[in-house]
Amino acid sequence: MSFELIFLFFAGFFGGVLNSIAGGGSFITFPALIFVGIPPIIANATNTFASCAGYMSGTYAFRKEIADHKDELIPIIIISLIGGISGAWLLLKTPEAVFREAIPWLLLFATVLFIFGGQINTGLKKIASNHRHASSIGGILLLIVLLGVSTYGGFFNAGLGIITLSYLALAGHTNINTMNGLKLLVSSTVSLIAIALFIYNDVIAWYEGTIVLCGTLAGGYVAAHVSRQLPQKQVRRFVILASIATTVYFFFDIYAG
Fold it and tell me: For 22-56, what is each residue's pLDDT tens digit?
């Protein structure tokens, strides 16, 4: 029992660190919950509950960066709530095998989008300057993308941070600390509404989840401050490496495991 407690706490801590800096912490916490014997669907819901503490503490740590984008916050929060509850509902209605097989492909798409998001955004700006209605159409499409990202997050929390960073890159953000703050805001909102549905359906393992939650709370807050001190290029490289590693992991786990 003491080994399980220590194991889950440190899994949560390192997951919280990774979530706050780059996303992808669920690739530590979700397998850890499976390892101690939690069934996959319950482990997934429990992981969302446990990761939320790290998201919220990280969001608070990045509050200054988030405050610089006040005009974006209301639509981001509303769409994140809608997507989060939709994704959680789909999770509870979908067989596990179906969404597990889609995960590596979604992560591959997100990784490519994050790496080339700046170039894509430059191309969209050129289109907007040449076509009068392109910018408004682009804004609507970005809201649809955010809805898809939020739905994914409610459906399966692993990789939410990386996919959210990809959306933010596509939306034109370039400051990695601002992107991390907004990413954590989206992750917190999606997770909170999904957790409400999971509680209603009684699919959270409270003891194990609370241990991991304590770890993510500590790790997320510590990492947010460390991230702010690092050069942006190094943090971006770390994000890319983390996204590639998690994508390879899931391809191997699902297709070769």
Answer: 666 777 888 889 889 888 889 889 999 998 877 88
Indicate the burial class of 111 (C-beta count within 10 angstroms; 0-12, 13-18, 19 or more): buried
**What global pTM score does this model have?**
0.78
- Rounded Cα distance, 211 and 144, in Å: 35
Q: Tell me the C-alpha distance between 57 and 235, whole Å.
A: 19
Cα distance between residue 177 and residue 204, in whole Å: 32
Sequence-ordered list of residues with C-beta below 8 angstroms from that of 56, at least 6 positions apart, any chain: 184, 188, 220
Which residue type sits at 59?
T
Which amino acid would we find at residue 191?
Answer: S
Q: CA-CA distance, 233 to 235, in Å (whole number)?
A: 6
Q: Note whether 143 and 78 are within 8 A (CB).
A: no
Express each pLDDT in 213-256 by its tens digit: 999 888 877 876 776 676 767 777 877 887 788 788 889 888 88
Amino acid (one-letter) located at 205? A
Tokens of 73: 């916050």
Contacts (Cβ under 8 Å, ≥6 apart) of 31: none
Mean pLDDT of the residues in the chain? 83
Nearest Cα neighbor of 110 from 55, 155, 156, 169 is 169
Q: Are 117 and 166 in contact (CB under 8 A)?
A: yes
